[in-house]
Amino acid sequence: MAVRPIVTVPDPVLRKKARKVSTYGPDLQRLIDDMIDTMRQAPGVGLAAPQVGVSQRVIVVEYGEEDPQQAGTGIPKRKVASKLYVVVNPELVRPSQTTETGAEGCLSVPGYAGEVERLTQVTIRGFSRRGTPTRLRARGWLARIFQHELDHLNGVLFTDRASRVWRVEPETEAERV
Ligand code: ZN
After folding, report:
1. Rounded to an integer, what distance in angstroms lies between the CA atom of residue 162 and that of residue 151?
2. What are the C-alpha distances in Å from 106 to residues 49, 51, 55, 171?
3. Where are the domains of the chain?
4. How far is the CA of 24 from the centre of ligand 1 (A)?
5. Gap from CA of 107 to ligand 1 centroid (Å)
6. Second label for 129, Cα 20 to 30 Å away, from 15, 25, 38, 150?
7. How far is the CA of 113 from the centre of ligand 1 (A)?
8. pLDDT of residue 95
9. Which among 155, 90, 86 has a CA at the least distance from the CA of 124?
10. How far is CA 138 from CA 37, 59, 66, 72, in A?
11. For residue 55, how far is its CA from the centre of ligand 1 (angstroms)?
């Protein structure tokens, strides 16, 4: 396992439509392990393979909801146990009709954040790292992260969708994906 360099704009790999994965061999396993290491090291809450320069349809997401008992108390945010998701060849199915607007940032677009409208709830279908069919539902921030990562597989960046983009100091950046 190893941390790989994160590709940033204007690298053309970020603008390519990534290829579907067809074999679940050692190269894929190494790529996934490295993506998890790279996401944690960044730190980020999601990463798509093109962000490490590999144009394949693989995403990893690790996100824990804010502890509801601490929400609004002013106590520094603590996350309940994060859950790790690995999805190969992910597809969006059954999108919700409702959307919400929120701020997001991207490891591949350092120094910027933007306000992006996303579906409130999504169902994602795809395959596990071993090729087993998988399906998951996400809402809120988790749904936003998945939509951001799916966009990366299609060469789309959050700045393409943002109604407004602004500069941020790296240390104040929100959770990046
Ligand atoms: Zn991103």
Report:
1. 13
2. 14, 10, 17, 13
3. 12-68+80-172
4. 24
5. 5
6. 15
7. 11
8. 78
9. 90
10. 23, 15, 15, 23
11. 14
Helices (H) and strands (E) in the chain — how many of each? 3, 8
CA distance 123 to 94: 6
The pair of structure tokens assigned to 63 is 């996100």
Centre of ligand 1 from the C-alpha of residue 64, in Å? 18
The domain defined by 12-68+80-172 folds into: Peptide Deformylase (3.90.45)
* C-alpha closest to that of 105 among 32, 27, 46: 46
- Which residue among the candidates 149, 171, 173, 175 is catalytic per the annotation? 149
Whether 149 sits among the annotated catalytic residues: the reply is yes
pLDDT tens, residue by residue, 111-154: 999 999 999 999 999 999 999 999 999 999 999 999 999 999 99
Q: Which residues surround ligand 1, an ion (CB under 5 A)?
A: 106, 177
